[in-house]
Amino acid sequence: MKTGCVALVLCLNISVDPPDVIKISPCARKECWIDPFSMAPPKALETIGKTLHSQYERWQPKAHYKPQLDPTVEEVKKLCNTCRKFARTERVLFHYNGHGVPKPTANGEIWVFNKSYTQYIPLPITDLDSWLKTPSIYVFDCSAAGMIVKAFLERLDWSSSSSASSLKDCILLAACEAHQTLPQSAEFPADVFTACLTTPIKMAMHWFCNRLLLHDSLEHTFIDQIPGRQNDRRTLLGELNWIFTAITDTIAWNVLPHDLFQRLFRQDLLVASLFRNFLLAERIMRSANCSPISFPLLPPTHQHHMWDAWDMAAEICLSKLPQLIADPNAEFQPSPFFTEQLTAFEVWLDHGSEGKKTPEQLPIVLQVLRSQSHRFRALVLLGRFLDMGPWAVDLALSVGIFPYVLKLLQTSAMELRHILVFIWTKILSLDKSCQVDLVKDGGHAYFIRFLDSLDAYPEQRAMAAFVLAVTVDGHRIGQEACVNAGLIDVCLRHLQPENPNDAQKEPLLLQWLCLCLGKLWEDFSEAQLLCLQSNAPEIVIQLLSEPQPEVRASAVFALGNLVDIGSPSLNEGDDDSDYDEKVRAEINVIRSLLQVSSDGSPLVRSEVAVALTRFAMGHNKHIKSVAAEYWKPQTNLLLKSLPSLTNISTSSNIYSPNSFIQGSSGLVSHIGPVLRVGSDISATGRDGRISASSPIAKNSIMHGSPQSDDSSQHSDSSMLQNASNGGLIYTRSRPVDNGIYSQFIATMCNVAKDPYPRIASIGQRALSLVGVEQVVMRNNRFSSGGAHSGETSAPPSSNFGMARSSSWFDMNSGNFSIAFRTPPVSPPQHDYLTGLRRVCSLEFRPHPLSSPDGLTDPLLSANAAPSNMGLDMIPQSTIYRWSCGHFSRPLLAGSDDNEEANARREERERIVMDCIAKCQLSSCKMTSQIASWDTRFELGTKASLLLPFSPIVAAADENELIRVWNYDDALPVNTFKNHKLSNRGLSKLLLINVLDESLLLVGSSDGNVRIWRNYTQKGGQKLVTAFSSVQGHRSTGRSIVFDWQQQSGCLYASGDISSILVWDLDKEQLLNTIQSTADSGISAISASQVQCGQFAAGFIDASVRIFDVRTPDWLVYMARPHTPRTEKVVGIGFQPGFDPYKIVSASQAGDIQFLDVRRASEPYLTIEAHRGSLTALAVHQHAPVIASGSANQMIKVFSLEGEQLTLIRYQPSFMGQRIGSVNCLSFHPYKSLLAAGAGDNAIVSIYAEDNYQVK
């Protein structure tokens, strides 16, 4: 909006006073600073008109000006119609000077003349408004001008509701209220209101000079000789105007609502100037008991403290005037105003926050950006402010910062590049709509050049990549502009190291280069063809083995956007050669994605599942035909002809589906029993909706066999057999090799059973797209498979990296908060206590249950009719939106600023040291039962765990039901189920981050690992991450064992498989696969808490081995201490203390062997603890004590010298009942406490020394 035409109506009738005005002597006479009695009246009137024209023209030089001097009603009407016709939809300004006519009437009529100037003719405001229409702005400079405003508002109230827009598009400025008369004092000009609006500096300086104590010593003529130009800030007059603009903007921004400030001070240049000057008019005229008014009504500002700053600037100016006038060549000394205001803003930044008063200097900082001398400091301070959060960005945008920083992109100043990129990063993290203006002004080229520069830090270049990613996100014009500017080549060049031996690139840069590429060619076939010509897929595929899960997920996102979903618009116009090239590249991409489908990070697996679903959409019919061919009923022998998956090359850190499909029989057992292929008829249910009784709506995972399927009771689920019929109309015209389709189906079957709920849902959806129905096995034993009411899950996340601490908030339904947080991607850092490291989890919001079909993920719901099914069925990627949150968080604050967390950690370290010292000196006789808890587990207690810093014990049963209990208060804390699946079995409970907010790792006997946080809050538990630790290694039974090594951040998993898998939970990646070199499986595993990478394993054949991942051969020790017994090793552990060479091993036969790795393989001490019934072994980490339990209802506690310290057989009750068969034993990490879980009566008992005191 701008003012296109200005009507200047002057009713002066010089030398004839109106009848209702009695003038004093001497009185104000000047109009536009001209004495009308200094020349002939006609000449004076013409001169005043021209001067008023020139004064307005200074504020809006491009407007069309039409003066009308002493007019008649017809002349005013003609003037108004002409102005509206010329301005069209732009604003028209109507300036009325009524100093030569009577005051407005009570009805709001203003006065003009008849043709002979013998009468005053009233002009109703209604007529004036009907001629000018809207948008318009009126300036009434006459006595009792408030009458006009009152009548105008009454007319708007009487009008119909359709005039609401007129109310908004009409602005009124009046010189005084209805009962007031204009000042007549000779110290003011007669048109003081007009003088304030059009010549504010001159008026302000005259008024200020009259108020000075020493005003007699200063000649008023000096004020008219202030040197310089108003638009030249390097001159005195220009600097005064600059300071005045900054101060009036600051006053307005601090007292007005932000939407009104935007309307009056940022939309129209002339309107903004008039309202700035109106604030001055209010200050000056109120000193003469006259109150200017406006519509919209402004709050009083004449006493705002920022006027004091203006007075100081004016006084400094007046003190310089005599010298500058005497010596025009004297050097101009800038005012300290802006330097002082920047300092004040800097002080606020040091102490301010969101909850405190907003910084009033923000508009001044905006003005300082116009000065080259202050610009760098202002940008740095502005960057600090924007970094305080989205609220700060919103405030800066409300001030009007956007046009300034947009224009600064045209500068070539090298020192401004880094801070400008930072500021734009902060702006776009809040307001994506800025992308349009950025591309329109060619600003994208600035960021492409910065991204390609090697002199900037990688983190800063990552910001440039973020800006470019937002620029092209869903913006085809932006995509085309960036492609034409060579962004693809720039990104690809920096994705690959120039020298293979170069150090690893900054992960954040790699992450955003991938995301930028993914957004650049998203749904843009021309860019996809260019990327194929640039060999982009091969370059990005190399990043799938990067150690940071964020980088891997971003690479999958970029590759997934290359997968054509088969929309005709994407293939339209492509010739055969281009099409074949795209298909070959797409198949290469899919093969690579199949390799990372078992990645340890749910964030990565989620992106893989989304990409594979796109593949299922584009190749729907061909995949269905392959599924129908290989999985026909009663023809499982055809599975032997399934193309082998061994042609998928597997890297050392990536597993492919072929590694867990061992020949045709393995495929039959793994996939055959859980699939049923639908035909191409009866595609969906009658109403086209997913029934709540369908497997996918129940959140069930495929399980069971065709024989157990009750198809008659699941008729609604038949709609999943062919969701594509009638709805998924896009498909390839030519198929590719059927082998990739078979690999896809095999992989998606595993994805559909992913331990992370959302990923499993995506896999189920992909299978339903290709007609593979999921069969839910009815299992009476586990019929209550639903989650506990307090259980919550969230979207898959980057796991909980060692040095990453942040949140990935739910992106569902498109309603995502910009405040969601993203982890900094940085190398792992050690914590303060030697040997202990912190693993911080990602926090998620639970999925809202908003789908009418009961699906927990609205992104995956399919409640549309078949004719609408298509692109909407593709689940949405979340890595991009989640990653954007990183830049909305403070980036300049240090990571150690959280003093409270550091103090809490130091306090815990002190407690740990005290507890360790006490337990090492204690007798360790666990003779006192301090608590007995009936867990009410149906199948007995399978695992228990004592928390380090609170009197809390966690226990779980074979059904993976987890209960948490306070043993000091004897009160339950929380209860929840580990998962909703019917296939259950618990292996172990482990604690991660014992010195911080600990996480609960729940290892299932099938190898799935789930990690929970907030598990001690009733109903507040959150699933942090979940993955399969033995993906690619099919267990013959259900006996996977685990252990966690805090200082290395590694999880060790093995069992009745031939390998030991070492997972790096910081990288969320498989670190090593160690061959066990034994003919039997592993039954117990224990990680050393002293030596990183070292762990001991006990085998089913009673042998013991120690492995070290740091050595080339891995195996460092092997012994058979339990010979001649051959029962399996039940428990194994490193002896307490810091001696890494001694271990303890207990076999099912009942003997406990003490071994020293430095000696021979023979044990140096043997304890015959139990007779053929040993079921559990616990080794304290610090106290010199071990404990064993047996199925014969007995617990024994031994010293490291073999002395039996305690024998526990009975409950300490009056009846003295037996304790029950022992299923599990666990010591407190730092205290002399022992938790024992029974198998037959499900009681968890906690034992301590006699002197234990409840705190």
UniProtKB/TrEMBL annotation:
UniProt similarity note: Belongs to the WD repeat RAPTOR family.
Any one GO BP annotation for this protein: cellular response to starvation
Biased composition (Low complexity): 705-718
Keywords: Repeat, WD repeat
UniProt name for this protein: Raptor N-terminal CASPase-like domain-containing protein
Chain residue ranges for the region called Disordered: 686-723
InterPro entries linked: Raptor (IPR004083), Raptor_N (IPR029347), WD40_rpt (IPR001680)
Superkingdom of origin: Eukaryota
MF annotations from Gene Ontology: protein-macromolecule adaptor activity
Start and end residues of each Raptor N-terminal CASPase-like domain: 1-153
GO cellular component: cytoplasm; TORC1 complex
Signal peptide: none
PANTHER family to which the protein is assigned, alphabetical: REGULATORY-ASSOCIATED PROTEIN OF MTOR
